[in-house]
Amino acid sequence: MATNYSNREESQTSFSSELKLIPRWSVAAAILAFVVMEYLFWVVFPHERHHPGPPFGLRLYFALSWGALASLYMLMVGYISNDSPRRGMSVRIWMIICLVMPGGIGAVLYFLLRQPIISLCPACGTHVQSEYHFCPQCAYQVSASCGNCYRSVRITDLYCVNCGHDLASDNRPARLHAFR
Ligand SMILES: [Zn+2]
Ligand SMILES: [Zn+2]
Asked: Where are its TM segments located (predicted)?
């Protein structure tokens, strides 16, 4: 149970664990997208144009920035494909939206509309959202909260960061004291 809590906390806070959500295929797609962009800029476009193009520095700037944008987009799509299921959002629908909407609007929409992370109640397996303190089906306490103001607190805190309440006086379940 104790490791459950630490995993939950880390997955919500740590940037490096968010990066682990990016699947290998999307890293490969990102590299491919960068290569394709460079190919377009340095091989395809110069041949289609007969008059001399913009100066080299400008061409390099556009080639690199469009390449970076394309690969960033691939990483974003990969991230969304793994992030949406843990929020109870349809992967298929969001993949279609991301691929259909031009210029990354799909990805922007996703981050505006995304739902809180859903995890499973350790006691009964019900889906609980990350802001829940108790399981709605079995009343298992899934995260620590202040007994005075009822805001979320970290299980390692001795006092509520919001109201200064002494958390030791709350008689919280023993499983929440695991990291003391
Ligand atoms: Zn439950
Ligand atoms: Zn409080």
From this structure: 21-45, 60-81, 93-113
* Structural domain spans, the chain: 2-116
Task: Give CA–CA dist 88/97, Å, rounded.
Answer: 16
Contact (Cβ atoms closer than 8 angstroms) between residue 108 and residue 117: no
Amino acid at 174: A
d(CA 31, CA 74): 9
3-state secondary structure of 84: coil
Which amino acid belongs to residue 11?
S
CA distance 86 to 8: 12
Contact 8, 130 (CB under 8 A): yes
Of the listed ligands, the closest to the CA of 149 is 2
Ligand 2 center from residue 93 Cα (angstroms): 40
What are the tens digits of pLDDT across the range 78-104? 999 999 988 888 999 999 998 888 778
Looking at residue 164, its pLDDT comes to: 92
How far apart are the CA of 18 and the centre of ligand 2, in A?
Answer: 29
Residues with CB under 5 A from ligand 2 (ion): 146, 148-149, 160, 162-163, 165
Model confidence over 53-74: pLDDT tens digits?
Answer: 778 888 899 899 999 999 999 9
* Least confident stretch, 65-69, 73-77, 117-121: 117-121
Average pLDDT over residues 127-136: 83
